[in-house]
Amino acid sequence: MPSPKAGKRGSRRITINKEFRNIDDFIAEYVTNISATGAFIRSKNPLPIGTLVNLRFSVILDEIETIEGVGKIVRVEKSPERESGMGVVFIKLNSYSQKLIEKIFTYQPGRQD
Length: 113
Known about the structure:
Elements: E1 13-15, H1 23-28, E2 29-34, E3 38-43, E4 52-60, E5 64-77, E6 85-93, H2 95-104
Parallel strand pairs: 1-4
Antiparallel strand pairs: 2-3, 3-6, 4-5, 5-6
Protein backbone atom coordinates (compact mmCIF):
# COMPACT_ATOMS: atom_id res chain seq x y z
CA MET A 1 0.00 0.00 0.00
CA PRO A 2 1.46 3.41 -0.93
CA SER A 3 2.50 5.60 1.94
CA PRO A 4 1.12 9.14 2.28
CA LYS A 5 4.70 10.35 1.79
CA ALA A 6 4.99 8.72 -1.64
CA GLY A 7 5.15 12.14 -3.31
CA LYS A 8 3.19 13.84 -6.06
CA ARG A 9 3.00 10.70 -8.17
CA GLY A 10 0.68 9.11 -5.61
CA SER A 11 2.37 5.70 -5.59
CA ARG A 12 5.70 4.36 -4.55
CA ARG A 13 7.83 2.92 -7.36
CA ILE A 14 10.05 -0.10 -7.01
CA THR A 15 13.23 -0.32 -9.08
CA ILE A 16 13.72 -3.54 -11.02
CA ASN A 17 16.54 -4.66 -13.30
CA LYS A 18 18.95 -2.40 -11.49
CA GLU A 19 22.67 -2.81 -11.95
CA PHE A 20 23.27 -6.32 -10.67
CA ARG A 21 25.81 -6.90 -7.93
CA ASN A 22 26.39 -10.52 -8.91
CA ILE A 23 25.24 -13.24 -11.29
CA ASP A 24 22.67 -14.57 -8.77
CA ASP A 25 20.85 -11.22 -8.88
CA PHE A 26 20.82 -11.31 -12.68
CA ILE A 27 19.48 -14.86 -12.83
CA ALA A 28 16.72 -13.99 -10.35
CA GLU A 29 15.28 -11.13 -12.43
CA TYR A 30 15.56 -10.23 -16.12
CA VAL A 31 13.47 -9.20 -19.14
CA THR A 32 12.65 -12.24 -21.27
CA ASN A 33 10.61 -10.56 -24.01
CA ILE A 34 9.50 -7.14 -25.09
CA SER A 35 6.70 -5.67 -27.17
CA ALA A 36 5.95 -2.14 -28.31
CA THR A 37 3.83 -1.60 -25.19
CA GLY A 38 5.50 -3.65 -22.46
CA ALA A 39 7.73 -6.51 -21.37
CA PHE A 40 7.73 -9.76 -19.43
CA ILE A 41 10.17 -9.84 -16.55
CA ARG A 42 11.22 -13.21 -15.21
CA SER A 43 11.25 -13.09 -11.44
CA LYS A 44 11.21 -15.68 -8.68
CA ASN A 45 9.20 -13.19 -6.60
CA PRO A 46 6.85 -11.24 -8.88
CA LEU A 47 5.43 -8.01 -7.53
CA PRO A 48 1.67 -7.51 -7.09
CA ILE A 49 -0.51 -6.35 -9.98
CA GLY A 50 -0.79 -2.57 -9.99
CA THR A 51 2.73 -1.96 -8.65
CA LEU A 52 4.60 0.87 -10.39
CA VAL A 53 8.21 0.02 -11.21
CA ASN A 54 11.24 1.94 -12.42
CA LEU A 55 12.61 0.05 -15.41
CA ARG A 56 16.20 -0.13 -16.56
CA PHE A 57 17.25 -3.00 -18.81
CA SER A 58 19.54 -3.65 -21.75
CA VAL A 59 18.80 -4.76 -25.28
CA ILE A 60 21.32 -5.71 -27.93
CA LEU A 61 20.96 -4.16 -31.37
CA ASP A 62 24.20 -3.23 -33.16
CA GLU A 63 25.40 -2.25 -29.67
CA ILE A 64 24.16 -2.76 -26.11
CA GLU A 65 21.50 -0.14 -25.39
CA THR A 66 19.62 0.68 -22.19
CA ILE A 67 15.87 1.21 -21.98
CA GLU A 68 14.65 3.28 -19.04
CA GLY A 69 11.23 4.35 -17.88
CA VAL A 70 8.28 3.56 -15.65
CA GLY A 71 6.02 0.55 -15.93
CA LYS A 72 3.03 -0.97 -14.20
CA ILE A 73 2.61 -4.65 -13.32
CA VAL A 74 -0.50 -5.90 -15.16
CA ARG A 75 -0.03 -9.68 -15.01
CA VAL A 76 1.68 -12.14 -12.67
CA GLU A 77 2.69 -15.70 -13.54
CA LYS A 78 3.46 -18.12 -10.70
CA SER A 79 3.42 -21.68 -11.91
CA PRO A 80 5.74 -24.68 -11.79
CA GLU A 81 4.92 -25.39 -15.47
CA ARG A 82 5.57 -21.88 -16.78
CA GLU A 83 8.17 -19.22 -16.25
CA SER A 84 7.44 -17.17 -13.11
CA GLY A 85 7.42 -13.44 -13.56
CA MET A 86 5.35 -10.38 -14.32
CA GLY A 87 3.93 -8.62 -17.32
CA VAL A 88 4.70 -4.91 -17.30
CA VAL A 89 3.04 -2.26 -19.44
CA PHE A 90 5.16 0.80 -20.22
CA ILE A 91 3.67 3.91 -18.60
CA LYS A 92 6.44 6.35 -19.48
CA LEU A 93 9.70 5.93 -21.37
CA ASN A 94 12.30 8.60 -21.95
CA SER A 95 12.46 9.71 -25.60
CA TYR A 96 15.65 7.76 -26.33
CA SER A 97 14.11 4.57 -24.93
CA GLN A 98 10.95 5.08 -26.98
CA LYS A 99 13.08 5.38 -30.13
CA LEU A 100 14.94 2.19 -29.17
CA ILE A 101 11.65 0.30 -28.79
CA GLU A 102 10.59 1.48 -32.25
CA LYS A 103 13.97 0.47 -33.65
CA ILE A 104 13.72 -3.04 -32.17
CA PHE A 105 10.67 -3.80 -34.29
CA THR A 106 12.24 -2.48 -37.50
CA TYR A 107 15.77 -3.69 -36.71
CA GLN A 108 17.95 -5.25 -39.40
CA PRO A 109 21.43 -6.28 -38.15
CA GLY A 110 24.29 -4.35 -39.69
CA ARG A 111 22.03 -1.71 -41.25
CA GLN A 112 23.21 1.86 -40.71
CA ASP A 113 20.45 4.48 -40.23
